[in-house]
Write a structure and sequence with these properties.
The structure is a homodimer. By secondary structure, chain A is α/β, with parallel strands linked by helices. Chain A is 41% helix and 21% strand. Chain A has helices spanning 4-12, 31-44, 61-64, 93-96, 105-118, 137-146, 159-174, 193-200, 214-217, 222-226, 229-242; strands at 16-23, 49-53, 74-75, 79-80, 82-84, 87-91, 124-130, 150-155, 179-187, 205-210. In chain A, the strands form two sheets. Chain A has an eight-stranded mixed β-sheet, with helices on both faces. Chain A has a two-stranded antiparallel sheet with strand order 3-4. In chain A, β9, α8 (193-200) and β10 form a beta-alpha-beta unit. The A-B interface holds A 25-29, 32, 57-58, 60, 63-64, 98-102, 104-106, 133-137, 139-140, 156-161, 163-164, 167-168, 170-171, 174, 188-189, 213, 216, 219 and B 25-29, 32, 57-58, 60, 63-64, 98-102, 104-106, 133-137, 139-140, 156-161, 163-164, 167-168, 170-171, 174, 188-189, 213, 216, 219.
Chain lengths: 249, 249
């Protein structure tokens, strides 16, 4: 059975060359921070980049980017993303509001599908998606509806985080989803444990981002963010992660 | 409409004096670590304590406690929790297995309800529940079915974590659920921001737990864990949090 909405979504995303899902089995590992700095770093290099926040468990990229309430997507035969720091920016927060009321699972799926169907992305080299943590129904729906998503996995050096990441990787492999590799965020020592575990899983270890207390104080200030350890390390990691195969026009 | 299962669940929990849900809007803030050290700390004091891990997004208390695979709950007119470090211990992990396959929302709710219905807790002063992050369908189901749950909220000093916590608090207030207070975990500076925000929300600020790199290396080693900053600080926080009104027999 073919879901008629997949046709609409495919149409909406046809001018997007690569779709990168920044993902983590576990919450609180810095996934949104990685998605945001990766997007900013690519845009600065001259690529056309969209950042799409679908983390319904707590959308936060708008806070990291410090987007004022006055900056909103506009309506024009659909929803046109806001332009923020050179990025086409869209977040579930504009669709469901910043309210406390939780969405029931089916409502989240419906909101995601609706948002994918109506958002008018321009021509993009990269669409970076800030995913919800874990693999919920809604993530499965997203994977099914969008199809060609590449996964970029974020973990911390913590054994607890990586145990959850391992499960996610197993599942993504079962679903035959391409995995770009693993980024180790908030590293505070010289342990090679995560690198070794990543290689054992048959995945590419993309690099480590050292823990930097300045990251917290750069929330809401994108140019300051690019000057922190995560911003600077992302310059290196994104080459390993994306190969930057896309030619600039 | 009364769900017949609530009667069974009420019956199962009738010998439990207080039910404390350790909860956080955001993942990765150390919720499982707080739930585990709180449980260990209470048990050491002589209270009868159950620890119930229902974090289906990635159950991890069994890893923190270092429970060997040979220690399992047993069956006897229901499921009898394992005894670990003086705690009655039960985890969703024993019910759904440690597999990668994600549970669809409705399956998670069914697994939770089933687990609540069959687990034979002994006489307990405290049942500490390690909740899933956020407020999902399954959390709402749990609140509805168990009823008398008190919430203990965990955050980090990060603005991003606290923004999500605020939404959760708003929702818990709408649901008229009692909130014990807020614990600020992994504190690395002297900022009073979270304390002030907590008080502004009308909640009790229970204290801060300083960031301690030794916590990571004590995973799987409960007695070592009680000697780290989180273990030592929990001694103080639990007094503020629980008032220890329960009389020891």
């Amino acid at each position: 059975m073919i879901d008629p909405r997949t046709t609409v979504i495919t149409e909406r995303l046809k001018k997007t060359r690569r779709i990168i899902a920044v993902s983590s089995g576990k919450g609180g590992v810095g996934k949104s921070m990685v998605a945001t700095t990766l997007s900013l770093s690519l845009a600065k290099k001259g690529y056309k980049v969209g950042l799409f926040d679908v983390d319904f468990t707590g959308p936060s990229t708008h806070i990291i980017l410090g987007i004022p309430k006055t900056v909103q997507p506009t309506e024009d035969k659909g929803i046109v993303p806001a332009i923020v720091e050179g990025l086409e920016y869209m977040s579930l927060v504009y669709f469901v509001g910043d309210k406390a009321t939780p969405l029931r699972g089916i409502d989240v799926s419906n909101a995601l599908i609706e948002l994918l169907s109506v958002t008018q992305w321009g021509e993009l080299d990269f669409l970076i998606i800030d995913m919800p943590p874990g693999i919920s129904d809604s993530v499965l729906d997203l994977v099914r509806l969008v199809g060609r998503i590449e996964f970029l996995i974020v973990t911390t050096p913590s054994l607890l985080a990586f145990e959850v990441v391992k499960k996610q990787v197993t599942l993504l492999c079962e679903l035959k989803m391409p995995i770009i590799g693993v980024i180790e965020n908030m590293k505070a020592d010289n342990s090679h444990a995560i690198k070794q575990e990543t290689i054992q899983l048959g995945l590419k270890y993309l690099g480590a981002i050292d823990f930097d207390t300045k990251v917290e104080s750069s929330i809401g200030n994108p140019s300051k963010l690019l000057g922190t350890t995560i911003g600077e390390t992302m310059e290196q990691i994104k080459k390993a992660a994306l190969n930057e195969k896309v030619n600039l026009k």
